[in-house]
Structure formats: structure tokens, C-alpha cells
Amino acid sequence: MALGSATPPYELRFDAGRICLDxxxxxxxxxxLDTVPALRAWIGGCGLVPHGTALDxxxxxxxxEFRELRGxxxxxxxxxxxxxxxxxxxxxGRVNAAARVAPPAVCAVCGADGxxxxxxxxxxxxxxxxxxxxxxxxxxxxxxxxxxxxxECEGDTCPLVYLDTSRGRRRRWCSSEVCGNRERVARHRxxxxxxxx
Length: 197
Fold this sequence. Notes:
Layout: H1 19-24, H2 36-45, H3 60-78, H4 86-99, E1 106-110, E2 116-120, H5 126-142, H6 144-148, E3 150-152, E4 161-163, H7 176-196
Helix pairs in contact: 3-4, 3-5, 4-5
């Protein structure tokens, strides 16, 4: 299945500002990387591979590998610098090991319109794709400015993490339309209840 043919059930894109944070978003509101087609769609949707890259060779073991990396990245991103914790050290070791693998080789080829487009030199392996996510996590975690901009949504029961690039760094929700709207509605209901009382 080519990525371009993904159907709406596999639209897994949440723009958290970084690919590694987009991977963390695949757990909400439920497990979204639950099938190989869903994983293929996520890989293409977040830009790990050029548009239209076929991932027919992806298999169920990839789901396990991506979920495992997701857990390690989540541990590092959500950790309050608890570098002494064994689970933190284990997660750091796994992310660093994944980052050491060579990423997929990209080359430029002539597109249908005559312009140059990106294409992979061959079918990407799971470890090479994981390396792209792990390298993104390493860059995020080692950049003090970017790390300081990581926020967790303030919405009730929303665990999404995003990079706050808003003016003044005052963004509170993963989405103003979803969690922000829920908060505004809840605030309105509380005020209305106080007025009635």
C-alpha cells in the first residue's frame, strides 16, 4: 500500500512541532498505532519518508519497535530531569542506541513536472526510520531553548505534549478548538451555575 492511499481512519497527524512529539500523540485518545496500515500512514503523514513512498514491507514487528521507542521518548520528555532514576537511564540508552543507526538514504530525482523531488534510495528499514525519530528526540532534549518550550496540554485528561512556539510562549492547550474549547465551555458552565446559585 502506498502512503498516498491512506484512508481517513489512518489520519493520525497531530502537529506537535517535532516528529518525536508527534509519535507521543499516537496514544491519545486511545492507541492509534494498532495496525500496520496505521503505522504506515503515520510514517508518511509525519514526513519520515517522502510522499508516496511504498511501505509494503512493513510488518507487525515494526509496531512493537515504534511503540517501544515511543515509551522511551515519552519517559525522557516528561521527566523532570530525574537522571538518577534507572528507568530514565534505560530510556536514554535505548534512544541513543536507536539514534546511532544510519537513517534512510535520500536522493533527488526528476519528478513528473521536471522539478527535483526527494526519493529514498531503497525501501527503508524499521531501524533506519526509528533512527530519524530518535535523532529528533536527541536534538529536542539537548537544545535548551527547544526543551524549555515543551508543554503538556492543560486540558482535563489530555496527555498530549507539544512544542510551544506561540508568541509569548503562553499556549495552554494542544488544540484551541478541542481542549481549549472544552475548557471555555466548562468555565462558562461554572459561571452560569454560580449565577443561578
